[in-house]
Structure formats: C-alpha cells, structure tokens
Amino acid sequence: MKLRFTKAAMVLSLIGLSSQLFAQDDAKDSGDRFSKKDFRTWSIGLNGGMLTHFTPFNNRTNGDFSTPYETWGYGGYIKKQILPGFGIQADFLAGKVKGGRPNSGTPADARFTSTIDWSAALSGNFTIANMSLNQKRNVLSPYLTVGAGYMSSSANTNASNGANAGFEENWFVPVGAGFKLGVSKGVNIDLGYTVNFMKDRNFDGVNGLANDRFSYAHAGVEIALGRKGTSQLQNYSAIAALREASAAESAELRRQLAMSEEAARRDREALIAKYTQELGDDDRDGVANKFDKCPGTVANTVVDGSGCPLKVPAQIVREKIVITEADRKVVDEAIKNLEFDLGKATLRSTSNSTLDRVAALLVEKNFSLKLAGHTDNSGSMALNLRLSKDRAESVKAYLVSQGANASRIEATGYGPNQPIVSNKTVDGRQKNRRVEFTLY
Questions:
Q1: Is the pLDDT of residue 143 over 80?
Q2: How far is CA 264 from CA 251, 254, 257, 268, 383, in A?
Q3: Where would I find the beta strands (DSSP E) of 103-245?
Q4: Which CATH number covers residue 431?
Q5: Domain that holds residue 343
C-alpha cells in the first residue's frame, strides 16, 4: 500500500511540473538589442548507462563484494535553471546493481543483485565554467551535482551472510560530475558520472560495517523547453553577449554621430547660402536683396531706400562740392548719437533727430554719403559681416525715408576687419562697434 501511494505521488508531481514546463512555450522573446532577454530555463533529460557497486570512494575491499559487474540502467530528469551557473533538477533512476565474490561469507562465487524499482532525487546543478568567450551560446559546460533522494529497491543474494529482502525504501545522497555539449540552442549532449551514497547498510543484501554505495555512468540528451530561437540560460555566455552588445551600441553611436555631423554641415551651407543671397544686390540698384522690395529694376534706375523706382527722379546736377566744418559737425553728432538694439540692425528712436539733420543736409546740398558699418571681433565672421552691413543699410533706409537720394548713399559692411583700437578690452570693443559717415 505504501509503495502504491509513493508512486501515485510521483506521477502527480510530474504532471504538475509538466504543466509549468510547457507554459514556458508562450514566453515572449523580445528582439530588441538592449531590452530584457528571455531564456529557456526549463529542460528535460533522458539518459542510459552502466550501474555498478564500485565507486572511487570504496575501500580496499571494495565494500561487501569485491568484484563489480556492469549492468545497464536508465534515468531522466526535469531541471529548472535559476542562474547561468545554478539550477535545480529532479532526477529519476531505475535498473539493477550487481556484484560478486563476497569479502566475508561463503560461497566464494556468491553474487548479489539489487533491483532499483524507482528512485527520485532533488539536486542542485552547478555549472563550474563557461568555455565560450566569443560566442553567446556556450558549447562546453562542465558541472557538479549534489542532492538528496529516496528510492525503492530489493536485494537478492546467495551469500551465506546475506539475506534476500523485498522492496524497501531508503534515503540516499547523489553526488555527481559531468559536462554538457551544446549541439543547438535547444539540445545538449549530457555525459556524467554519479555516486549514490545509501543511508542503508543492506542495499546489497549483506548487512556490512558501512553504508553501501553504487555509481551510475551515463550518456544522454537534454532538451530545453521554451520559445524557439531563445537561448538556454545555462549555455548563455554573459561576457560574449556584453561584448556583442557593446560593439553594436558603439556602431550605432558612430552612425548617429556621422548623421549629426552631416546634418550640421548641410545647415551651415544652407545658412551661408541664405545670407549670401540676402546681402547681395542682384539688380545693382544699391539696395541689398533683403531690403529690396522691387527686385529686378533696370540698371541705372534711380530708386528709393526700399529699392523701388522713384516716380520723379531727382535731377542730377554736377557741381563742385564744398563741405564746411558745420557740415562735418552735423555728421559727427549723428555718429555720436547713433544707437541700435543689442545685436540687431534696428535703429533706436534716440538717433532720429540727428539723422534728420543729416538727411536735410544731403537734400539741401546734394552731398553723397558713404556709410561704413564696423563690429568688434566677438562672434563669427559671417555674423559680424551681416550685422555691419545690415546696420549701414538701416541708416541708409532711414535717410532715404527722410528724402535723401538713395543713389547718392553707399552702404557697406566691413565686420571686424577694420578696427580703430584693440579688441582686447571692453572699451576697445565698444569703440570698434560703429558706423562711419563720409561726405563727398
């Protein structure tokens, strides 16, 4: 009755474990390079091999019987991998263990046969080395196992100091070693050797001085359960995976940097082309394209400050130009009172009164005027050239709006190229930021 109950409990346990194993098939495996990885952590194994009562731990007399006989055994296991180097497995084993020539008792050719009806053990599996440094999937995985188990066995012997017994259940401690060869992402060849230390002296039918033990050398196959294409956790080389991820990330960063540099180059070229076009004078009417509201005027057309033809062109009279000290004083006052918004070409209203007198002077005496914009060396060359030109054009536009002849006013920007003092001091830079007026 007890044996039937134990077998039924094992069957129910296997059914419960199987439901968890096949649930692994639905695990989602993300394909993103840097996202959380999914692994196959459940596996089943089947194996077969030789059973013998000889072990490396036997004493000189080799236990109760001195001659081992190799017999076939078979087994299997279900394993859950917790970490890359550690897993828990449930082992199952059945077969017969045989030996001959008792060390005590008669006859000399006596033998024993111990039949393992069933055995179940729970063991920890320790992967002791990862031999793959360049590939994410490890090919060779040495391991050690140790655990505790329970088995049902019966002994049959013809030794004089032995006794035949029915099936008895006893505890045992399995200790093993081996290695696995990964032949694919989901299949391993398993080669191992296990010594089982019985908590019983009568496993071979002879009640000896020490607990009995037997060994199981096996070869088998392990099949990982889970989503197809994912790696086994026990075969996963974290070092190789880290190297691969780092190389991919480095390549991606280099690609992004190259794209950013190319985009910045295109933006610079577009900006230069824009300012070149805006500050040019395609129709050569003396008004920059940016301020020219009537582009494409005919050459030698008299235009106003916005580049549009004057309805009644002023009559050009060639006469001798005489510039007095009073005239220069008007211009000097205009220069001193000239103010712009910070970093812009917008004239402030405080400059209007003195510029009005300059405009009146130009109208009254028909003078020509050259406006030269200058900046300090702060900022880029392109920006300073544009700003100095724009400021000179703003002064010209204002003078024309007050009645001055646009064709007699020349506006030029020199940027930082013609400083009057050193730019090394704040005062020097202030003096270099100017618009010069030249009457002729």
A1: yes
A2: 20, 15, 10, 6, 17
A3: 111-127, 140-157, 168-182, 187-198, 213-225, 231-232
A4: 3.30.1330.60
A5: 282-439
